[in-house]
Amino acid sequence: MKEKKYLSAAIALAIMAAGSSVFAADVVDFGDEEVIVTATRTEKKDVDVPAGTEIVTADKIKEMGVRSAMDVLKQLNGIQYDCIGNANSNMGTMTNDVIIRGYKDGTLILINGTPMEYRGKYDLGSIDARNIERIEVIKGNGSTLYGSDAIGGVVNIILKKNTQENTVTVGFGNREGYNYGVNVGSGNWRVGYYKSMLGKSFDQCTPNINKDAKNAELRYYTRDLSKENFNISGSLNDKWDIYYNFSENMGYYDRYITATLPGYTGKAKVGDLYQTRRYDTTNHNFQAVFHDKDWKVSIFNNLNFIESRGVTNKLNYAGTPYHTREKNVSYGADVQKKWYLNNSTNLIAGISGQREIYNAYITTDTKKNIISSKNSSFGRNVWAAFTQIEHQFDAKNTATFGARETWTTGAYRDQNYNNFSMSGSWLHKMNEENNLYLSIAQSFKMPTYSEMNKNTDFAIPNPDLKPAKGINYEIGWKQNHGSHTWKAALFHIDVEDNITASWDTKKKYYQYTNVDFRNTGIELSCKIDGGDKWSYNYGITWQHPQSKSDNAKKLQMRNQWENVYGRLQLDGGIGYKYKKFKTNLNFTYMCSRYQSQSGPNEAVKPYLLSNWNFIYTPDEHSEFNLNIENVLNRRDRTSNSSSDYFCAPTTFMLNYTYKF
């Protein structure tokens, strides 16, 4: 009860104090210069931010023709795509990840500056690209400003608010795909609804030999992948903004017998269904935002529901039922104020309070027989106080120092944490177009309750997981010269007690453990605006992410460094405009990849992700859009775990949009 009172008091204080997290309206006008808010919690020109950054505007997202926030992020330099389900769909708790600079589970996802995660996971495939005003990506540690989960970086998705254009969209594609949506509003309020479906089955995973199926080869197929999104945004007045988003993702994953091996003794035939699963993920995100001069506050509430059900072994004609259910809740407030101490010094300080709850429920089979007979509920309060001071020594040199104290109360088993993290950076303006920067930052990540406790039939609890702690070093250069924008960064990451899942292929279970992580790399990117017709972008990232082995199956490698994820990434894009026609082609190539195994990690083939989009606008009211995913129809492995999951074959969608 005391903890609840403390949190209620903090929220009440936040409301009285009044302020805001980042909302689309908070971005000030710096002319034609790109502006970023997330990196320092205040508006700055991108070239003046002492960190590796990426900015994607609504216009660029439209030219790309992508469907979701995940489709945007997977094409950015320095970001690796880790996908389990086709079309960015989830398989229950197995969600798709954004890996920044080789660090998995260390990317903090924000919506309008407030967290949208549930127990360290997120559903970026549910955020419709048509609702996005801009995406800001901060590479490297953001823990001092944003807390736990930001070791690898921060992604802030800023949504559209008071756009005046009303639209109706319908579309169809191959593989029984279709989508439709509407976005309408008046004055300060907007309402949007979108639904998409990818119906036809296609194989998604490499076949594997399963002893339960009596030496039969099994292969996964996906079907009926649907996504539904409803959102409301608006302003009560010039100080209050409201946002609500509902999303629901559903899909079926079937496993068929595709071959039999010598010695097969089963009665099933090739083509028989062995296993089926239905996965449902539902999200509710609410924000109330207040902004007034130098005060900012955000109040948020996130609810997530995940349910998985089906039959594991249909060859056993009684069937082996499978059913899991969980609910994740987080609510709280974030307050900050900015002071101008003098003409060369400013200070930002703030507090935040958040309640986290994880519930796992009693589950039953189709005949209401109990599978799991115990409800589990875990919760904790997460508190923080943070500050950042910036001092400009002269016209060329600026230093920034930040600090954050994070602590928890009311945790299960009194397993509370506290951490003090610091960061510092130096920006040197060589001239009006060129800046150099140096950054050093400490990081911190708390284990989630689902990592410490059993949340599936294949998990082994580890209630004594330790927090991950690390430090990031970065030196970089940015240049805005005419139509060219150049960025380069050299970075090094060291993380002690990184939290990672370890899979035992023989016993068929996984457990989260603490292992060390490190990565050193270099990034280089360039954007070119060629004028009225042409535009280009390209980038390269070379890195060497490694993790220490702790698996009992790797005794010969215990406490030795293993390669993980990808080492070399190339990305690029080209755009062309002519009168009423636009086209944009983008690709991302990742090689020198490694997958986690119960034995030594193995090298895997590169992936090449491609997207080609065409837009034709015959008049001011109509627009046709043709988007093609996986242009070369490659069967590329998009997962980084011991199981092989592949991207969908070539998929196209033709949309018509009417504007009014």
UniProtKB/TrEMBL annotation:
It comes from Anaerovibrio lipolyticus. This is TonB-dependent receptor. Its main location: membrane. GO terms for molecular function: siderophore uptake transmembrane transporter activity. The keyword Protease does not apply. Belongs to the TonB-dependent receptor family. It is found in: Cell outer membrane. Residues 1-24 form the signal peptide. One of its GO terms (cellular component) is cell outer membrane. PROSITE patterns: TONB_DEPENDENT_REC_3. Coiled coil: none annotated. Residues 47-154 form the TonB-dependent receptor plug domain. It is a multi-pass membrane protein. InterPro entries: Beta-barrel_TonB, Beta-barrel_TonB_sf, Plug_dom, Plug_dom_sf, TonB-dep_rcpt-like. SUPFAM superfamilies: Porins. Keywords: Cell outer membrane, Membrane, Receptor, Signal, TonB box, Transmembrane, Transmembrane beta strand, Transport.
